[in-house]
Amino acid sequence: MHYAPAPLHIPDGFLSVIVSLLLWAVSLVALGYALKRVNEDLGERQVPLMGVLAAAIFAGQMLNFTVVGGTSGHLLGATLATALLGPWPAIVVMTCVVSVQALIFQDGGLLALGANIFNMAVVGVAVSYFAFQTLQKLVGGRSWGLFAAGFGAAWLAVVVAALATALELAVSGTSPANVSIPAMGIVHMLIGAGEGLITVGALAFLRAARPDLLRRGAVAGATAGRVVWVVGLVIALALAVLSPLASSYPDGLEWVAEQQGFIDRAQSPLYEIIPDYAFPGVSDPAIATIVAGLLGTTLVFVVALGIALSRRRRDRAAVS
Amino acid sequence: MHIHFLDSYRPRPSLIHALDPRVKFVLAVAFILAVALTPIGAWPAYVLLAAISLSVVILSELGVAFVLKRAALALPFVLAAAPVLATAAGAPVTHVALGGWTIAISDAGIARFASILLKSGLSVQMAIVLAASTPFPHLLLAMRAVRIPRLIVAIFGLMWRYLFVLVDEALRLLRARAARSGDPREMPETGWRTAHKASVAAGGAARRGGTVAWRARVAGGMAGNLLVRSFDRGERIYAAMAARGYDGEARAPAAGDPPRPARHPGRRVAVVGRVGRAGTSGVSGYGFRLRSLD
Predict the structure, then answer these.
(1) Cα–Cα dist B136/B161, whole Å
(2) Which stretches does DSSP call E strand in A47-149?
(3) Helix axes B43-59, B21-37, angle to 10 degrees
(4) Complex confidence, ipTM
(5) Which of A58, A203, A264 shows the shortest C-beta gap to B163?
(6) Domain span at B167
(7) What is the CA radius of gyration of chain B?
(8) Domain of residue A202, CATH code
């Protein structure tokens, strides 16, 4: 098992329901449109090709190299997929990677999957595409332009995806913006450099071994239209502006979290089985809380024990 | 990111395993939604939810230890939530000295942090039980049943089918690199590695294969290699599927069939599973059924 400190797969429980559902909606729209475009371009070929390439990106994420001490650089693959396939198939492929990681390997939650698809497939691909196309144009077709653009796009995509993750956590009230945004940003500036280096290595290999694949990717990128480019630009700009703003004025996000807190509070009467989580009839609040906690733990234990015992009894009945 | 090299399905003769995958899928998602909707600090509700999740884990016969161990893999993410201990507005309960700073931990912070921890733990347990008690092909059927688009489910199916093949390929690449680029820490404990350790201990330099940029380039070359092979594999698979009558329509087993393909192994033909030589990772029934075989 490889483990890398790339906390981009948000587990369930970290995002508020509203943020989760909103990002699910955005991701579904993006994915639906991407599938439509891929269907037009590839037709019946797309199922095998997308499936195998998604599996390849998944497996490619195991490829690592040691950096310093116990840390290692990993491939995430959004930029590589974008450079090889164009943005729409890349969104489909990255969505599949993230979804299967959540479904089979619990890498990221199910309710949080919409947010994870948004961060890694939509933001990752759109920002990669925007940066890759722009940098290549800026460099102007020089031989090292491909590598410079690949490195820049990979780095930017990782950093922006990390900022998006941090911002989502902050809006959910899970992580204070003034701590999590700088922390995520700095860590992923380093992780992004690793991603950039691997992407450059892969592009160098592809240019030497299979230039036709890169040309095909360039054609797919050129015909993808302006939409993704603009979306990538907007996302990159928005996060570049929003995240320093949010981290220096965490109160604004706190306010958003508070607004959601209202919804939480509106639900709370449903849960007042034991009022105020303290035990009625016990005056000292600390003791009352402890009693309530003990009672809760005992309840869970008794239910579990009951189920285990009833099963054992049934098993014994089945044996005899 | 962690990767387990094996399918997470664990067959057991349990009630949960026998449950219809569609029911399981919907219930698991509903449970996770319920957990997400539970407000911060609603402890009685968490007790109830924990009782439900623990009951499901016990009924699934996967073993409480197994599920908890898998659930611990999601723990590192908790670091992201740790700062709320200090920043949430509330009465300070205790102070922690961290480096030169003293950080006040508030009661609201503890409540929020504990709630996030519980929510995350409960949700991931249910997701583990779902994945470990349902073979992925059945999960695909369940996704179809809740109207997740056919196309994306078909791509999931194909991806899952080739996932383990390509993971094997990536492992081969890693092994080849370990064998050639002289990083003894990645080698099994052989005489050579022992000799290397002895030489390092005697003051010799550890040979680790080039600079960071060089190592990254090698890893990139491996990734490029993997992608090229997958492109070609994708084309071959498409050609093989087209030769067997594939017309772009992914066919899951017919709607009337009970979603338990393992009990009717003869009735479904997993065309995809027979393509190429790499049919070893056990497609148990999901596939693209040919019209001519119906």
Answers:
(1) 10
(2) 64-66, 72-74
(3) 160
(4) 0.79
(5) A58
(6) 136-142+150-191+236-294
(7) 25
(8) 1.10.1760.20
CA atoms of B224 and A200, how far apart (whole Å): 10
Distance CA(A150)–CA(A206), nearest Å, equals 12
> Which run of H or of E encompasses B94?
strand B92-98
Closest chain B residue to A270, measured at CA: B45
pLDDT (tens digit, 9 = 90+) per residue, B245-290?
Answer: 887 665 655 544 444 444 444 444 444 444 444 434 444 444 444 4
How many Å apart are CA B54 and CA B59, to the nearest integer? 9
- Contact state of A271 with B39 under an 8 Å Cβ cutoff: yes
Per-run averaged pLDDT (10 residues), chain A, 320 residues? 55 89 94 90 84 91 74 81 91 93 86 94 94 87 84 93 90 82 86 90 92 86 81 86 75 60 49 52 68 77 80 70
Gyration radius (Cα) of chain A, Å: 24
Residue B251 lies in a domain: yes
Identify whether residues A189 and A300 lie together within a single domain.
no
Q: Which A positions 35-74 lie with beta carbon below 8 A of chain B?
A: 35, 39, 43-56, 58-68, 73-74
Looking at the structure of chain B, the number of domains it has is: 2
Torsion-angle region of B252 (φ positive above 0: left; ψ -120 to 50: alpha; else: beta)? beta
Give the structural domain span for A32: 17-264
Rounded Cα–Cα distance for residues A199 and A147 (Å): 8
Distance CA A125, CA A228 (A): 9
- Which residue shows structure tokens 């395993």? B17
Please give the backbone phi and psi of residue B266, each rounded to the nearest 5 degrees, phi first.
Answer: -80, -15
Residue B125 and residue B50 in one domain = yes
- Closest-CA residue of B relative to A5 is B1
